[in-house]
Design goal:
This protein is an alpha/beta fold and 486 residues long. The chain is built from 15 helices and 14 strands. It has three domains: 12-80, Arc Repressor Mutant, subunit A, CATH 1.10.10; 116-129 and 377-480, Alpha-Beta Complex (Aspartate Aminotransferase, domain 1), CATH 3.90.1150.10; 151-372, Type I PLP-dependent aspartate aminotransferase-like (Major domain) (Aspartate Aminotransferase, domain 2, 3-Layer(aba) Sandwich), CATH 3.40.640.10. The chain has an eight-stranded mixed β-sheet with strand order 3-10-9-8-7-4-5-6, sandwiched between helices. Helix 1 packs across helix 3.
Length: 486
Amino acid sequence: MIAIDRGAAKPLHRQIYDAFRTMIVERSLQAGQQMPSTRALASELGISRIPVLGAYSQLLAEGYFESRPGAGTFVSALFREQPPSFERPRAAAPAGSGPRMIARRCDSLPSREGAPWTSGAGAFSVGQLAFEQFPYQIWASLVSRHARRARATSLNYGSPMGLREFRETLAGYLRTARALRCDAEQIMVVSGSQQALDLSTRVLVDPGSPVWIEEPTYDWMRQTLRLAGCRLVPVPVDGEGVDVARGIRLCRKARAAYVTPSHQYPLGVTMSAARRLQLLDWARGSGAWIVEDDYDSEYRYGSMPIASLQGLDHDSRVIYIGTFSKTLFPSLRLGYMVIPPDLVDRFAAVRRAADLCPPHFQQAVLTDFIGEGHFARHIRRTRLLYSERREALVDAIRREFGPRLEILGAQAGMHLVVTLPQGLSDREIAMRAAEVNLWLWPLSASYTGKNVRQGFILGFGSTAVTEIPRAVDRLRKVLAAERKWS
């Protein structure tokens, strides 16, 4: 039974979506159970069919529902899997290191010399945005306003958690846009997602602790964990996200799992609802932590943004990380964490030891930027722009290469992946492509183990629609020069 409130602030499609999701998560609806048709449900609720269609579409996109041609809509059969039971882990003992002039853990960090894809700006460069679309005049006006209103209190040290007004604004945004369970007291403002990963590692794990990472994964996150001396456990990613059952077989008693469930980096997979619940069940049963890196969830094409993993967590096991580097600009250096209530004091203590507190000024400016609606308008405008650039890139790749290049992860974010035929080296090709101003990030660099796929991570955020076909043509010429390509 679904009850809707026409007078509520929450839209009708969201009320229907939330009701079905809750019933599935709480097992009130069983796997394989047939759902009423959208027309029948709309008639029963006495509303238009449009919000029902919207709710069903989102539930299908997130894997709660499945559609069977000619039969109807059903609760996903994946929910038949029963979560396993676990033993509580024993705390891992910290690992020591011999005396050296330089910390031995620094040796785990690779040298980036000779890798042009890490610094090049242009066609296919990863992490580059449509900077020309940023509302400079509005931002400059807000900066001037706060510069004129500067007070002595804003020049002093602040809370290690960040500016209270900014955290309250963030809490409202995250509850609405990402379905998080949080309030301002749980939010810590950080200088981007990389610092959030570092703080999470300092608080949650000891040197030598086993930690799940996705395979393939975000390279800078992997380096953070290596620097902390963690034992990395690469867990394969398939079409439903990280393979939780495989992770349990590899290392059931891992201390933490670092995941990107809304838009897996780099493959672009969205973790299914069944896998999300399985991951949460594992964390609850084993006493492990989950670090959810939600780096670009605002940019999703074809469906609404996927709800956060943290919003499903009833046991306070998830540390949620977000950033403004992908939505505004990277040099802003502002991100945030949503921390379980019982860990807030621990995170605050580590933050004070690291850098005392975040800078005040940019937080104050961004508070008004969000509160006055500029942020939401910017997201809507850039989402449309990136959707056009993504479509242009997909069309150009298919036109030039046909089935020879497989395209992965084109449904969200500002990058996609193409895989290469066997026998080609993505690193060697990327080095040669840089000579013609193509910045191809090798897919193989994102792998930790030996089972490596060759391909490229292609960013499209900073490349105009008119330039994309020419860039893909240059890529075709680079590949055509490869002896093993033909």
